[in-house]
């Protein structure tokens, strides 16, 4: 019984939403087609659930305690000691005391790591084989580093401009559009590099064409807390006023402004499912938000300088030299402490990042970079066509071409991604009927009519009285169609009422229309 | 304490030898495929655009006749050959792959009006305005492949003379009979010089005839008195007749649903009927702007091709009200005959300008052998296009066709007229007592009477 329930759950996951029922579809032919389509959907969902149950090659990691043991008391050394040799190599400490503090980033397949030291140190590592690929000095402040669509290119936010380098460390571009960038984000499907600068200006730049897609002034001052929602590519900014604003490239105003904390926002992160956001404020609070309702689901006490969600929904946070990892056991964002790790006193952790498809948490701190093992954080089964940790150069090239062909347009970034490819609810006629819309239209028409410039005419036709008369006429003319429409609608409504009264045909005309 | 972390050994996830295929792992979890719907939409849009870019349907013209082409026939037994007859009495066998004449059949004095090949591919029947029916032997594929056999004239096996001119001929499927029409419907046997049976119903000329592909004794004809008649050879009298408002120029049976047939009508429309219920058409196929001259089904039975007096060829789905494709060139004049090739991938049209033209049935299809990966990719793209076909952007690109100016204008004029009529009808209904104005659907409207 339990097994079949589990399977049902999986099927539900793959169905991607419920069938709304086809009874409302009046067209028989269409209904037939849709029924066939639904049948196919359910078949493929079942097949996918079976694949998940039987055919996936790897299993996720776990940390199980025995007796009175507490998982957060387990030391990293013990874990490293217990796991196999290959995995134990993934936990390391690299001490670089001179050029820190460090920031880091992983490629989407988790194969490469990029580290940037505040005092100009850039290095790229193959974390699978633990080889250093390239290391160089830019002799300038580095504030953030980000990989672009694959390991071949990366961007670094430096003192005055952002730069794009390739894998061997050659400077490819200097992006001079956004001065003094503080933080960077790359939107995979859209090929957009997003940067926020010291003046609170948000810039979207297309990395395929170099075009500036959006340039917005937030007007909320200096801002260096930025993250992208992986579900819909909406950018979130955390401001000093305690506000979090959500942005898309095509609108100059934020999609959403929410007051999250009474004090500056220190960090924010998004869960993979797209509707859970974690924010940390200077007000000694960490909050979890449901973005469907814009409500705080949970509020915890604590400081965090940086936050990150793993692929399986673990939440890592760090303040000072203490790193805490929280886990949601029940599935309804009821987060509880799962693991903790303390660095040497005096170390300041700058940024935590879960490594995709591995049970590893990497972090940059004031004296170098480290990584620890976090069992159960990464997705055990990768999809070759999404992100492949064992990618060959040929596969990488092919994927790049396909990604460029499937590049999405910046207009497609919106809060509810499922709307893409759907139909507008309500017919066009209904839409036209909304009262406010019609009034706005009328006002616009009237304004246009009033603003019309008249020609100067001779022979007394430009007399003030005539001009006044003409003006009135144009206004009336502009108003007329709207009024007529309204009258027509009213008549229709009256008629409907009469027919509702169900009078015999002959008597209907005598029905009082009120 | 029990601990396990993800640990993948490279041997398990990569290929062993360089000759092996790369290993592919799939995980269909929706969480990993963020924004998949948007990506699919982008793919559909790109596929629609690429389809437009690759749409080059015209493959070539087959030049040789000196007068307008009046009729064509497929050889059901041989894919590459097609027969064509022209208004000057010339009959030619063409090799489609080399686009050249293989053989000429000389004999007719006037226009050839009908051509048909027997199902076994041995005998070609032709008839014409010179009141003769001629039987020809069809050369085997080997002779047809020889290039030097062109301009090689053959003599008819038999010539049967009648009193009246003939308008069309069709051969029975799997049998020895064929039917000619003109002043009456005559059923002939290969080996007899006189008709086996003759039918007449009304006095007007019969203009087209087609045997049912599933039941060899049933045939349908259309006549100048605007009628469509069904005959059963086992009975002495015709079985069913309907009269429409305008004449039907050609008939084609649906090979997959052999109780259904489609008509090419003078009133610019095609009508699909079910032979068991002829009270109303199953579907009206509108789009042509002038009389439809010929119609032929694809062997799949899912679509048919029509040729029209408006100098275009259109391809319709068997159940769609509007065409999915229109073919035209500057030089193609009025189209008198069209045929779908026996493998459903080509369309051949014969027109007033003495040329046969060869078109692809799917304008953007890649010819030749497709690799399995290419085929799968194509199938996927077709599926996403199908999925998003109702979205305005995709729809606009997929639907767009360039039309010659006269046809564009004629179509918009016809649309205006239809709209006006509709509006008038609506007003009439609005201002009369409910129920007094009855609208007859277009499927019924064009039928004048039905006679059993």
From TrEMBL, chain A:
Residues 427-441, 465-493 have a biased composition (Basic and acidic residues). Residues 419-514 are annotated as: Disordered. It is found in: Nucleus, Nucleolus. SUPFAM superfamilies: WD40 repeat-like (SSF50978). GO terms for cellular component: nucleolus; small-subunit processome. GO terms for biological process: maturation of SSU-rRNA from tricistronic rRNA transcript (SSU-rRNA, 5.8S rRNA, LSU-rRNA). Residues 337-417 form the BING4 C-terminal domain. Pfam families: BING4CT, WD40. The keyword Nucleus applies. Residues 452-464 have a biased composition (Basic residues). PANTHER family: WD REPEAT-CONTAINING PROTEIN 46, WD-REPEAT PROTEIN BING4. This is BING4 C-terminal domain-containing protein. It comes from Amborella trichopoda.
From TrEMBL, chain B:
InterPro entries: Sof1, WD40/YVTN_repeat-like_dom_sf, WD40_PAC1, WD40_repeat_CS, WD40_repeat_dom_sf, WD40_rpt, WD_repeat_DCAF13/WDSOF1. WD repeats lie at residues 62-104, 105-138, 285-326, 328-369. It is found in: Nucleus, Nucleolus. Keywords: Nucleus, Repeat, Ribonucleoprotein, WD repeat. GO terms for biological process: maturation of SSU-rRNA from tricistronic rRNA transcript (SSU-rRNA, 5.8S rRNA, LSU-rRNA); protein ubiquitination. One of its GO terms (cellular component) is small-subunit processome. It comes from the Eukaryota. Residues 361-447 form the Sof1-like protein domain. It holds the Pfam family Sof1. Gene3D superfamilies: YVTN repeat-like/Quinoprotein amine dehydrogenase (2.130.10.10). Its main location: nucleus. Belongs to the WD repeat DCAF13/WDSOF1 family. PANTHER family: DDB1- AND CUL4-ASSOCIATED FACTOR 13, U3 SMALL NUCLEOLAR RNA U3 SNORNA ASSOCIATED PROTEIN. This is DDB1- and CUL4-associated factor 13. The lineage of its organism: Eukaryota, Viridiplantae, Streptophyta, Embryophyta, Tracheophyta.
């Amino acid at each position: 019984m339990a097994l079949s329930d589990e399977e049902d759950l999986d099927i539900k996951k793959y169905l991607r939403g419920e069938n709304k029922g086809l009874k409302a579809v009046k067209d028989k032919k269409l209904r037939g087609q849709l029924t066939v389509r639904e049948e196919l959907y359910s078949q493929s969902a079942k097949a996918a659930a079976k694949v998940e149950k039987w055919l996936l090659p790897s299993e996720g990691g776990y940390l199980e305690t025995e007796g009175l043991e507490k998982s957060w008391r387990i030391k990293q050394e013990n874990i490293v000691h217990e796991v196999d040799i290959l995995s134990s190599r993934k936990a390391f400490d690299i001490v670089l005391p001179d050029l820190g503090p460090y920031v880091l980033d992983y490629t989407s397949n988790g194969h490469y790591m990029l580290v940037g030291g505040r005092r100009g140190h850039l290095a790229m590592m193959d974390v699978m084989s633990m080889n250093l690929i390239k290391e160089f000095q830019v002799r300038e402040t580095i504030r953030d580093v980000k990989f672009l669509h694959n390991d071949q290119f990366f961007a670094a936010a430096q003192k005055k401009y952002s730069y794009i380098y390739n894998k061997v460390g050659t400077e490819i571009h200097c992006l001079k559009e956004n001065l003094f960038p503080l933080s960077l984000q790359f939107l995979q499907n859209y090929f957009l590099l997003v940067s926020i600068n010291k003046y609170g200006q948000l810039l979207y730049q297309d990395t395929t064409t170099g075009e500036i897609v959006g340039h917005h002034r937030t007007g909320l001052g200096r801002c260096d807390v930025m993250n992208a929602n992986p579900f819909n590519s909406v950018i979130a900014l955390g401001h000093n006023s305690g506000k979090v604003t959500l942005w898309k490239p095509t609108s100059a105003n934020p999609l959403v402004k929410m007051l999250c904390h009474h004090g500056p926002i220190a960090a924010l992160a998004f869960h993979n499912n797209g509707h859970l956001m974690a924010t940390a404020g200077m007000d000694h609070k960490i909050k979890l938000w449901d973005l469907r309702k814009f409500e705080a689901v949970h509020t915890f006490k604590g400081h965090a300088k940086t936050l990150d969600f793993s692929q399986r929904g673990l939440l890592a946070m760090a303040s000072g030299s203490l790193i805490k990892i929280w886990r949601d056991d029940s599935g309804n964002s009821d987060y509880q402490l799962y693991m903790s790790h303390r660095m040497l006193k005096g170390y300041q952790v700058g940024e935590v990042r879960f490594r995709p498809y591995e049970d590893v948490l990497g972090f940059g701190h004031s004296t170098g970079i480290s990584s620890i093992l976090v069992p159960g954080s990464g997705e055990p089964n990768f999809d070759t066509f999404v992100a492949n940790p064992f990618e060959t150069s040929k596969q990488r090239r092919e994927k790049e071409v396909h990604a460029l062909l499937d590049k999405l347009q910046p207009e497609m970034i919106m809060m509810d991604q499922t709307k893409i490819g759907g139909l507008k609810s309500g017919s066009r006629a209904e839409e036209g009927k909304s009262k406010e819309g019609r009034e706005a239209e009328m006002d616009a028409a009237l304004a246009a009519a009033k603003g019309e410039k008249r020609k100067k005419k001779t022979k007394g036709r430009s007399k003030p009285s005539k001009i006044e008369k003409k003006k009135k006429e144009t206004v009336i003319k502009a108003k007329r169609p709207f009024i007529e429409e309204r009258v027509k609608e009213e008549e229709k409504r009256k008629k409907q009422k009469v027919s509702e009264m169900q009078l015999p045909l002959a008597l209907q005309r005598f029905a009082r229309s009120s | 304490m029990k601990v396990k972390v993800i640990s993948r050994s490279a041997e398990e996830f990569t290929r062993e030898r360089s000759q092996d295929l790369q290993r592919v792992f799939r995980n269909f979890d929706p969480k990993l495929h963020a924004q998949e719907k948007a990506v699919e939409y982008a793919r559909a849009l790109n596929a629609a655009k690429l389809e437009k870019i690759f749409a080059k349907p015209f493959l070539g013209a087959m030049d040789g006749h000196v007068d307008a082409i009046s009729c064509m026939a497929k050889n059901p037994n041989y894919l590459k050959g097609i027969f064509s007859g022209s208004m000057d009495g010339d009959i030619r066998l063409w090799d489609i792959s080399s686009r050249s004449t293989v053989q000429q059949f000389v004999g007719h004095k006037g226009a050839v009006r009908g051509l048909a090949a027997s199902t076994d591919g041995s005998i070609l029947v032709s008839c014409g305005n010179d009141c003769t029916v001629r039987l020809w032997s069809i050369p085997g594929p080997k002779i047809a492949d020889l290039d030097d056999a062109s301009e090689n004239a053959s003599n008819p096996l038999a010539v049967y003379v009648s009193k009246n001119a003939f308008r069309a001929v069709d051969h029975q499927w799997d049998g020895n009979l064929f039917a000619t029409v003109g002043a009456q419907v005559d059923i002939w046997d290969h080996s007899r010089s006189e008709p086996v049976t003759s039918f007449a119903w009304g006095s007007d000329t019969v203009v087209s005839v087609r045997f049912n592909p599933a039941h060899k004794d049933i045939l349908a004809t259309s006549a100048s008195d605007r009628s469509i008649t069904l005959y059963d050879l086992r009975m002495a009298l015709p079985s069913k007749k309907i009269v429409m408002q305008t004449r039907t120029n050609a008939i084609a049976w649906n090979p997959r649903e052999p109780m259904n047939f489609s008509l090419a009508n003078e009133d610019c429309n095609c009508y699909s009927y079910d032979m068991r219920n002829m009270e109303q058409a199953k579907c009206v196929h509108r789009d042509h702007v002038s009389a439809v001259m010929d119609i032929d089904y694809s062997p799949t039975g899912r679509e048919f091709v029509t040729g029209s007096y408006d100098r275009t060829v259109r391809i319709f789905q068997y159940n769609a009200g509007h065409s999915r494709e229109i073919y035209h060139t500057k030089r193609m004049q009025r189209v008198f005959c069209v045929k779908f090739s026996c493998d459903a991938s080509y369309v051949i049209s014969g027109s007033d300008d003495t040329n046969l033209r060869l078109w692809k049935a799917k304008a953007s299809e890649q010819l030749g052998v497709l690799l399995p990966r290419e085929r799968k990719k194509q199938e996927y793209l077709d599926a996403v296009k199908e999925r998003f076909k109702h979205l305005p952007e995709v729809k606009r690109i997929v639907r767009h066709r360039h039309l010659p100016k006269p046809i564009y204008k004629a179509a918009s004029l016809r649309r205006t007229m239809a709209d006006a009529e509709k509006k008038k009808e609506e007003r009439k209904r609005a201002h009369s007592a409910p129920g007094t104005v009855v609208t007859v659907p277009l499927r019924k409207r064009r039928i004048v009477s039905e006679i059993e």
